[in-house]
Amino acid sequence: MLVALAVGATLTLPSSALAGRGVARGQSAARRDHTTALCAVASSVTGLTAIRPAPLNPETFGVAAYARATSIGAVRALAEVLCRLPVAPVGPLWCPSDFGVRYLLEFVEAPVAGRPTPQVRTVVVGATGCRFVVGLGAVRWALRNPELFSALGLALGVPGATVTTFAGRLLGG
Question: For position 110, what pLDDT does the model report?
Answer without folding.
Answer: 79
